[in-house]
Amino acid sequence: MKKKGLSVDKKSFRKQLQKNGFPYYKTIRFVWSVLFTTLVLTFISYTLMEYYFPLNENSLSIGDYFYMVAFVGILTGVGETLYESISSQFNVNKWLINPWTVFMIPSLLDSAWKTPLLFENPEQYQNGLWLDVYAAPIGAFIYLIFRYLFNLIFSRFKKER
User: Fold this and answer.
1) Contact 147, 33 (CB under 8 A)
2) Is the pLDDT reported for residue 59 higher than 70?
């Protein structure tokens, strides 16, 4: 009998410890996703600059990286706020209102709107500038992948809340 009592106490203790140890799940997931998205976008930018302009000094200062974190943070923060407000206000099918829909559809529409410009004025999009047209969906995709990875890695904490 004591063992059962102890195991229940251990389970509740573990559950309480996880809940107290990880109370800001969404905030930490947001910061994680923004930092890793910015890191990947910085790597892509650096790689493309080295490819198109190998003779130039293609380094980023730490200040430039912080500006990129702020920019990605603001954009994704607006997206997360929209997602949270839509999902809390409307009782709609989960497949219809999910982060992939809320983030990817606007970014794909933005790129679809800009793609004709790429073909009308190809001289303006030389030396890798064509990627600017597709930066929003690439960034949204990377953000959602890291958001999903965070949920996958730390899902046991989310379930315990």
Assistant:
1) yes
2) yes
